[in-house]
Amino acid sequence: MTVDTRIAAVTRRIIERSKPTREPYLARVKDAVSKGPHRSVLSCGNLAHGFAACGVTDKANLSGDTVPNIGIITAYNDMLSAHQPFETYPQMIRDAAREAGGVAQVAGGVPAMCDGVTQGQPGMELSLISRDVIAMSAAIGLSHNMFDAALYLGVCDKIVPGLFIAALSFGHLPTIFVPAGPMTSGLPNDEKARIRQLYAEGKVGREELLEAESKSYHGPGTCTFYGTANSNQMLMEIMGLHMPGATFVNPGTPLRDALTKEATKRALAITAQGNEFTPVGEMIDERSIVNGVVGLHATGGSTNHTLHLVAMARAAGIILTWEDIADLSDAVPLLARVYPNSLADVNHFHAAGGMGYLISQLLKAGYLHEDVRTIWGQGLSAYAVEAKLGPDGTVIREAAPEVSADPKVISRAEDPFQPNGGLKMLTGNLGKAVIKISAVKAEHQVIEAPARIFHSQHDLQAAFKAGELTGDFVAVVRFQGPKVNGMPELHKLTPPLGVLQDRGQKIALVTDGRMSGASGKVPAAIHVTPEALDGGPISKIREGDMVRVDARAGTLEVLVDAAEFDARKPAEADISEYETGMGRELFGRFRALAATADQGAGILG
Questions:
Q1: Could you give the number of structural domains in the chain?
Q2: What GO terms are given for molecular function (predicted)?
Q3: Was 223 annotated as part of a binding site?
């Protein structure tokens, strides 16, 4: 299949740029692979500790080097609806591994926090930091050196990027990501958003709000809107790390269990002991990363991945930039409309044709690299399928449908919802930022208005409740970057800004913090870098300065005389409130070492 020339050009420059880091990375993977099954280097005492709690059969199998052992890294906990189904997976995986002549052990657990619980709370300041903690935690689990392959059980916002980074640090191991699937559809997302805005206006109380929220988030599985968690799942499939068709099958169904068992057996089949050895560090390459970015744009995915994908790629020695992401957005059309880009949720997306139909359309139009390696074998065409439950309880696959079951949710490549992915980079005298416009109406994509300055989302909320946010304005919410407080999502800004826009005011947001992966209709220049704490230009904006956010031209400017603006001293803020409480004191060094947003905002690599 011929790849679109624009996609090919971006891929080539990523390959060239990455050579100084990719080649040493591959050399390290090759060296680890050459040492063979790693249990062979363990002493008898090491090995005895490693299988002491196993049953007789597993002990016998692990005492030699010929039976493959899967290391399970799990993000299970009871509190996250998306991760609660993983409670039963280890036993299911162990049983499936024994049936296939292998062994599986839980190598370790990783923390998994729910941004939905911590939004607007002090704990949210640990959210982005948790990505790197997850990567390190998974690495500790796998460092026991007992394993021939790894299965990663994770779904949500920072969990999958952290697990991905860990997987690439153990690039010699074949790796499969095992999803749990989305919860069934509850209260429609537009109704949930309506109640939130009414609550922000004081027109309904907490009881009505909690009732609406509880009807939206009502059972096991991923939240059904298309935020970071479901963007993660899309990425794992389009990059070939899920079983084909596995992504959006609901938890607790026979097909979901069959896919998990199949993933276990496939992991055993692609170890070094078999004939299809697929070390993940060699499998994931520049083309795989580009495919992931293409999928993100084609589905109107989460802005958080302008941070995560940069960090994830670096774990494989691949240097991805915001410019690459922006150029790919210009080349890739939007083929899916899922809330907040429409009223549909991910269950409607799956029913309309889902990942199989999406991949088939992108392949036919030349937007994806087909000639990539996946855990299923060579070529992404194997993912242009629909997974179903066969008569014997195993998974069968059929070719993706030729026609979308709901063209309002997934369109054909030749008839897209819009000609680009809607994720753009902004540049100008305020630095660099990203903006997602797939859900922003055309009349709101260029905003020029006076600045209103805030140093927290709570300050803006207070001004809103006091009726002080009148007229057109650009809300500048600064001192929210990775070095200040871990760059929390500023979720509490969405309802009040949405209310003001609905009243007819021209509103935009400029911040060095993050917004939710499900943020939508209000234009938001986010991830502004350099951040305010580093003396970035955002720290020099004053109340009343005219600010222009132009998503069409891709510019972010403060309309002040250049000499005057350069002469200004950066503003200062008291950030002591972010330093202690709710565990934040444990992560002071993480914040101090954090990279800039365009470098992934992490501390690893």
A1: 2
A2: 4 iron, 4 sulfur cluster binding; metal ion binding; phosphogluconate dehydratase activity
A3: yes
Label residue 207 exposed, middle or buried (CB < 10 Å: 0-12, 13-18, 19+). exposed
**pLDDT score, position 529:** 97
- For residue 522, what are its two tokens? 């209000």
Tell me, yes or no, whether 475 and 366 share the same domain: no
- What residues contact residue 584 under an 8 Å CB cut-off, 6+ apart? 122, 125, 126, 485, 486, 578
Rounded Cα gap, residues 479 and 583, in angstroms: 20
Q: What is the extent of the structural domain holding 382?
A: 5-184+219-399
Known binder of ligand: residue 44?
Answer: no
Q: Answer yes or no: is 365 within a domain.
A: yes
Q: Record the tokens describing residue 545, joined without a space.
A: 């300065």
Domain contains 34: yes
Q: Which two tokens stand for residue 322?
A: 């915001």
Q: Which residue's entry shows tokens 């704990």? A: 123
How many other CB atoms are found less than 10 A from the CB of residue 99?
12
Burial class (CB in 10 A: 0-12, 13-18, 19+), 472: middle
pLDDT reading at 409 higher than 90: yes
Is 346 in contact with 358 (CB distance < 8 Å)? no
Contact 541, 558 (CB under 8 A): yes
Per DSSP, what are the bridge partners of residue 546? 450
Residue 151 in 3-state DSSP?
A: strand
Tell me, yes or no, whether 407 lies in a domain: no
The per-residue pLDDT for 233 is: 98
Residue type (1 letter), 89: Y
Of the pLDDT bands very low, low, confident and very high (cuts 50, 70, 90), residue 56 is confident
Question: What is the predicted pLDDT for the residue at 517?
Answer: 55
> Is 23 domain-assigned?
yes
